[in-house]
Amino acid sequence: MYSLMRQPHRPTAIEHCISCKFVTSSEENLVVAGTTQLQVFAIREVEAADKKTKAKTRGSSSSSPSCGDKLELLFRCSLHGVVTELQSVQIGAGGKDALLIAFDDGKVSLVEYDPATHDLITLAILNAEQEMFRGGMFHPTLRPMLRVDPENRCAVLVVYDRYLIVCPFRQDEQLAGRSPTLPHYEVELQTLDSKLHNVLDIQFLHGYFEPTLFVLFEPTRTCPGRVAARRDTVSLIAVSLSLMERVHPVIWSFDSLPFDCFKALPVPKPVGGIVVFGVNTLLYLNQSVPAYGVSLNSLAETSSNFPLRQQEGVNMSLDSVQACFVSSDRFVMSLRGGEIYVVCIKADNMRMVRGFQFDHAAASVLTCCMCTVTEKYLFLGSRLGNSLLLRCTQKSKAETSSQLEPSAKRRNTTSDWLSSGLDDDDELEVYGSSLDADSSSTSYVFEVCDSLINVGPLSSTSLGEPSFLSYHNVDKYDLELVSCSGRGKNGSLSILQQTIRPQLVTTFELEGCKDMWTVLSGKADSNQAATSRSSTHDADTDRRHSFLILAREDHTMILRTGSEILELDQSGFDTNSPTVHAGNIGERNYILQVCPQGVRLLDGENEIQHVPLVASAPITRCSLASPYALLQCEDGTIHVLSLDESSAAPQISIKTPSLADSSPITSSCLYKDTGKLFNTDFLSMAAGIARERLRRRASSAATEVKKEIVPGVTPITSMTAEEEDELLYGGADDAGKPALTVPATMIKEEEDPDEAMLYNDGDSNAREKDSTQPNITYWCVICRQSGSLEILSFPNMNSVFSMRTFSNAPRCLVDGGATDGSASTAGDSSDAVSPILEVMIAGLGPNGTKPYLLARSAQDLQIYQAFPYPSSLPGERLNVRFTKVRHDIVLHDAKSTSAAGAASAASNSTGSESSDGTEPFTPLLRCFSNIGSHSGIFFCGPSPHWIFMTQRGALRCHSMMVDGHVTCFAAFDNVNCPQGFLYFNAKSELRIAVLPRNLVLDSDWPVRKIPLRCTPHFVGYLPEPKIYGVITSKTMQRKTAPHLTNDDAAVLAPLEEGERFVFPEMLTYSLQLYSPATWETVPNATVVFDEFESVVSMQVVRLQSEQSVTGLKSYLALCTCSEKGEEVTAKGMIKIYDIAEVVPEPGKPLTKYKLKTCYDKEMKGPVSAIGSVQGYMVGVVGQKVYVWSFMGGKDLLGVAFVDTHLFVHSIVSIKDFLLVSDIQKSVSLLRFDKENRSLYIVSRDCQHLEAVTSNYIVDNKKLGFVVSDMMNNLIVFGYQPEALESQGGRLLLRRADIHVGTRVSSLWRTAVRPAAVHGRKGLQLVVRRDKRHVTWFSGMDGSVGYVIPVAEKTYRRLLRLQDKLITFLPHYAGLHPKGFRLLRSARPALVNPHRNILDGDLLMNFVYACKTDQRELARSLGTTPNMILSDLVDVSYSSCVY
Predict the structure, then answer these.
(1) Binning pLDDT at 50, 70 and 90, where does residue 407 land?
(2) Which of 418, 555, 1013, 1321 is most buried, judging by how many CB atoms fall within 10 Å of its CB?
């Protein structure tokens, strides 16, 4: 059995975060990592005036946080390895930082941002996987520890708890092409100290002449149960690292620290020293001053002999604490429950610590990493909830106390914040500061700025029907995925969808419509704007579309849109010919109607001007950028239209520009740049470079200034470096001389002395505040039949950017210089590709300041992101480059597509209606704004997609396959449909719809989070009543403990402890019912379980019942286990519930559901798993698997049983087979004979395997078994009795395995989506019986993936492609994709890896490769790129079921 694995939903959990100057040397960036994902953010501050303006425009009913600063995504990539450590180091004198990333098994990579390609480059790699480091260890028990010296002199890595690897860095200001690292060397830990092993933490200390490493270790281990015999077992040493002599003396040591010490935090200068965290203690240690420690609860006083002082007013434990310094004497720490404390270190003038001061500042998410950014922000990264960005403000005690009461009124957050799953209670806890009366004069106040959504950990999943579907053609493949996410107060239900399902308002049937547009009325809008200016509302929010223009084959239909949609009989519009384009132009929103033979300008429905184009070829395309328009004709020529509003009557004029290249134009567009990114001003770029050089020279005045050459910039040879500096800044003795002046628009102000203008986009803080005129520029983009791309300055039409091989879709678009008619050739005819049918540059993001270039050919869609980079070519050239963006929009037809589809796609390249009846060109890329408060691009066609740019700068592509083929699209803002849209489907149905308002689109999949404020464990969907059952738990303090009496009965006795005692916490479980219509709990249907009773499993079972026509009925079954200590025998119970419908109470529709208990009895032992097979109940009691008959719906009658291994925790059935998973003994395959009422073992795996969960993989008539283990692997077993090694079928054989990189917590199956033909008239299902199943899995890091069976021929072809891609493509951080996917085990196994599962994520890189590389790879495999793309499209389409 051959299969393919892919993770379309990437991990969302964040486990590591640092703050460094990664992209530029002038701006602090936030770098976060989680599992295999690396993301770089910048913080965009909002000015106080802008905040007030936005607060007024939102109105009082909206909700927004008091801090409007946002995170903006600058870069994101996926790594072929799991990130275990993340550090930053400054390389050279450039001021920028590089990243040190540590992976499993001792791999370390040094990567840097490359501004020339907007990508990562690998500077150095370190591999510590040699046998000498392992010392016979097969798998590391501890993750590698990576630390960097604060002075950037070296980095150290502790691997396998045996070796310390020291990597020195060069201290030269100019590396001059040399490696930034010096040769590393190894130091065995035993040579530093004979007792040095069991390392707990390492840190570099501040304030030492040489790098000084602090090591916290435990020579002899102990545990809480042996504290009476062995305590204070932790020690520390400080080692001075002499990098030149490679000598490492121990300069400081300390023994007999409390046994629960586990973490250290270095204290910055001038205090110095280190803070050591224990579970019950907090210590301060320094080489020159006495140690100081406090006890945080009464447990520390009885478990340690270390001299501790009681911390008054504090009763806490520091297990799982995260901390970082916000100043030299204050650090912030986040506890296990999310409480945030600000701790002040009180030290005297001799740097002797006298005490700690604790201030309970806030309560936030459960944190797993934290860091400060620019000393004003605090980032809390979490893998159990949403990550938060907080603004830290230091205020006086009097000011803070006066703001405590009004802070309760600032409980508002943005709509995106609420939709991301954090409710008002979390916000209130963050804003409300609780300060003690004896606190110091200053304190910290935290305000929420932004959040990063996280759906992990996904513990349990269930498939259900969408709550609201207004489509009549919905099939069984429209499902929604409901999963349990988070933990504790961050717990929630996450509803995931692969596609966007709009909410329909109404539908009309209109035959023969080819295209449509919605426009505003100039008169109406002017009146609305005048009315809006008199109020506090923005005029843009009150605009409504007034006309709907429908283009047919030979005429145009005009509809007036208001409270009703009515057709206009008489108007100034041209209705006798089809419309090519329509839109608003000018400040008063005049209407421009473009027809094949002329152009009309209208004010409302009144015609102002008509300009016919009789002598010209028919107009086929139009691109509008007010007040200009670009008209493209059938013969490939273009005309420029401009609007003049200076006179009393507006006039339009049309001119034909003369271009240097006369080759035919296939597509064109206009772009209006408002973000100041597109510019040809070389001096402004050079000024930024010179300022940066001046800053470096000022910081090192003793050194000689060397001449610098910026990569990609040709130096001016006629000037020396000193003359160039004098030109830009003036000489030192030029006080009385007239200086050379440069226009202010070419050189920025001196208050921004850095190179931020080089690499920051339009949202950067370096903007001209005193500019009286808006800096808006216009640009023209044309693609020619030869496959070249050219960007022209508008309206003078001078070439400023050229790319001759644009049709080959290179990864980075670099300006190739000016072109002429002779240079515009296609090149090698053998590499000729299909022409560009449609090109567009759209400004996305906030205020449209991020330009993206989109180009569509007959078989693919390319998306490029523009980034600034100085041009090295002479003349006025565009200082911009473009990098390709990864997306999942693949237009290549599937294998079942006929040749007619390709022919019809090729016919669209003509762009006009020919005499043989070919349909005219219809654009598929449609820009929109203000649809559900979103702006972006909608991609029409057989695979419709939404392309959004979120507020955080991430490009999101979401499909909309619920209605099939979309022929045309338009935004529609109406009284009855505010912020909605229109589209035609393949059935010529005009749909009026709106986007779902509860979905968060800033994710790989649209998601909605339902906050629960407790930990969800299991979720199940009952199809008949359409209700979800959810098992949740809350943490409660237990002040009683069970004791065994003389009668062997367990009695709860109170724990008599003091006030500073930390009582144990236990979980209290409950069952709740949720309705998917409103996602509210069903009243009077909550079951709270007893104390010490834990719910082990919950399943929706199909049991025999006479109440159903099919003879089977769905019940909600769960099993519990009561544990009251090792002295009391554990007991288990099985509970079966039914949901009945009754008459609801008035005004309470959810009361119609009533939870009925059908069975609730105790078993002889603990029940660990539950399920059903062929209408019978299956459960695991102890080490036996039982089959019961649910007689009369009241009692369980035993039918059969079989003995199993140690602890079975999962049962999955299909037909009469049962797949059971054991915690140590892998999986076993059972079969239930219904006629003979017998249960027997068919086959099993005898190898040691810690199975987490299991399910089936179905490939038509073949059946496999997928198992996930504790080492993050997916293993596929097969039952093959004819194989010799199976011993006649007694043993299950391993047939495939792959390493996922995350703990797989849940597996489920869905049927594949039938193959489809993308024809001209829409989506047509192919009549083909495909009985394959897609086996889905969810990870603890928030990722969702699938394993899908593939044919052997497809597998062989893709396997060869995968082997080629490993060596053909460069990989981030020098990681090896094949090594990452190899099977991993905790101990040596007598089984060889099989590797019969393809890596779908690696194979998708073929789609992003340029066309030349695709042809070269396909040629080496003996196939064609179309065949490979067809295989990948077939896999992607078959798995689109949500």
Answers:
(1) very low
(2) 418
